[in-house]
Amino acid sequence: MVGKIKIKKEFISYIIRDYLNGIGITPLSKKYNVSSWTISSCLTKSNIPLRSASEQGSINLKNIRYKNSFILKIKEDYLSGLGITELSTKYHMNKNYVKTLLIKGNVKIRNAYEQIRFGIPLDSIAEKYLSGYSFFQLSRNYPLSIPSLKKIVSKFNIPHRSFSEQRDMIFPKKPKIPKPKIILICKICKKKFEPYRSPNQKYCSDKCRKKATNNRRINNRDIINFNRKKNYYKNRKIILEQQRRYYMKPKVNKRRIEYSKNYAKKNKKKISIRNKKYRNRPEIQEKNRIYFVNYLNNHRDERNTYTRKYRKVKMKTDKNFRLKRRLRCRFNHALKDFIKIGKIMSSKEYGIDYETIIRHLEPFPKDIENWHVDHIRPLCSFNFVNKDGTPNLKEIRKAFAPENHQWLLVKDNLNKGGKWNAKKSN
Ligand SMILES: [Zn+2]
Predict the structure, then answer these.
(1) I need a labelling partner for 32 at 20 to 30 A (CA). Which of 69, 167, 196, 329 fits?
(2) Considering the entire predicted model, what is its pTM?
């Protein structure tokens, strides 16, 4: 702050001197590079009365009277091409003051447009246009609009070029050079031909080209198939997803189901043969066996409850089933009682056929609850086991032969017990 005030104090004396000599506030502000407001405040602080605009004007005119040499200088500058604003900055003067000076010197003042055009050599514009410049290019080089440029050119009696003429001036056409004739030999039919696609054309026609691609496909079948498979496994997830989306479309789905139904109807034999072939493949059989065993192990409880339920219902409704089951129970019990060594085999392996036994027992009695199936020769009279502990198959077969079965009322059976007369039966 202190420094500023000091500088100002030095300036103030100069400013006051110049102002009293008759220079206005605006030219002073330009001269000392400060705002006009600070100058006026300086003057009022040092108690110097400010002049009004008209007073200032009259002083200016007075000064001009004595300064004809200065007017001549400004006039010269103006006629050489400088504008009024440029002059006002050059001589630190108000624009209007410069104007009044110029009017005093009998100079015709140019408007803004004339000022822009002043000093531009019109001949050179016309020459450039003739040499090939377009109006657009000229407008870039001179501070003039395209219509005014057109006016200038027509003043010199030069006809305007059309768009295509202008284009040809800028990009002159190249003369066409005829290409030398090429003759090639087709790789398929070995005939001479002129190439119409490219100079490296291999085949004379589309027909030969297709033949060549077909040949290539046949020769590289293995590679193509391999690549196709490779790509498939690479993008398998995406492809399957796409397929699934396609087949889920209701229209497609309906069509597919109908087609498969028709196919199954028409090709029953074919399909069954194919399925049989597939099932009999040893690796598939092995796979199925493993799957089945695994399934049994994993679903034991479910299966047991299911079979229990099934058996209960079946025992109530199916007479054959009930009978068969009873016979099997009896058979197992009998063998369990006698055979101590080794496992009890399935009844089939002992040569027992429940179906024939049942057929032998037909027709069933109506009040079946009151009847038992009786072994005519009691089981306890047979010798199921050999001396060495192995099962005696002959005896077992005899005991469970269909002829050894009969219906017997429950009370009679209880009375009979283990009694049996060998002579009687024989
Ligand atoms: Zn050919």
Answers:
(1) 69
(2) 0.32
